[in-house]
Here is the input.
Amino acid sequence: MSREAAIKALADCRERIDAIDRRLLALLNERTRVVEEIGRIKRECKMPIYEPKREEDVLRNVSEHNGGPMAVDAARRIFERIIDEMRTLQKLKMEATGDGEVE
Amino acid sequence: MSREAAIKALADCRERIDAIDRRLLALLNERTRVVEEIGRIKRECKMPIYEPKREEDVLRNVSEHNGGPMAVDAARRIFERIIDEMRTLQKLKMEATGDGEVE
Here is the structure.
């Protein structure tokens, strides 16, 4: 491959990655909305926010459905970060509305 | 909301999250395939794998397109993890095939 062809191919790959990232972002925001809904239900019913068992289920779902080529360990670490960010969000909401207080 | 209705609503939310996660996973694997393609082109043309400028562009794309409700900082931290995992993948491939060696 000539250097010129390589530069063109790389630019094309980067456009594809940017488009994938925007779709990832949209899905992450959709996930955030569902997590917020969970938080509202739990606060209303004074249920515990943090459920380690559920986090294990999420990671199991990820491990079981990873078709590759991304390694399972890499997928788990990415989802651990996602879970962690969403837990922080729920904690902040809980503090803002008062522990277990009905909105 | 009764406790029973809450439990049902939470189960429904969790199913939605699991479905979103499977879509996220499919997109992350699609992204991995493009990153692998970039790696192949770069190795063939002996171009540098690590490009901090490009990583900044990826994070800028994320910040600019985050419609919320997820916070921009949270989105950036998630994508920093994604970039980091894919950089590790490229590094491992590079070591496996030899630095700059044509596959």
Summary: Helices of chain A lie at 3-44, 52-65, 72-97. Chain A has a mean pLDDT of 92. Chain A is about 80% helix and 0% strand.
